Amino acid sequence: FPSGKWINRTEPIACPFSANLDLLHFYLYNYLRTILYRTSLENAEI
């Protein structure tokens, strides 16, 4: 998992909260991408 990809951070991860925030963004990104992919497939079938 590439940390700091969505949040441009100049300093390394110091507190675990920022690491959890990156992980949260990672899961949200995959979740939204999966939803968009499924809706695009459903629209293509119609």
What does it look like?
With 46 residues, this protein is mostly helical. It has a domain at 17-45. It has 1 helix and no strands. The protein starts with 15 loop residues before the first helix and ends with a helix.
Counting helices, strands and paired strands, the structural category is mainly alpha
Biggest beta-sheet profile: none
Chain-averaged pLDDT:
71
Q: Point out poorly predicted stretches.
A: none
Cα-atom Rg, whole angstroms?
A: 15 Å
Give the distance, in angstroms, between the N- and C-terminal Cα atoms.
36 Å
Number of strands: 0
Report the principal-axis shape. Answer: rod-shaped
The run of helices and strands is: H
Q: Give the helix proportion (percent range).
A: 55-70%
SS element count, helices: 1
Strand content: under 5%
Write the layout of secondary structure elements.
Layout: H1 16-45
Describe, in short, the structure shown:
Helices cover 65% and strands 0% of the residues.
Short descriptors:
1 helix, rod-shaped, 0% strand, 46 residues
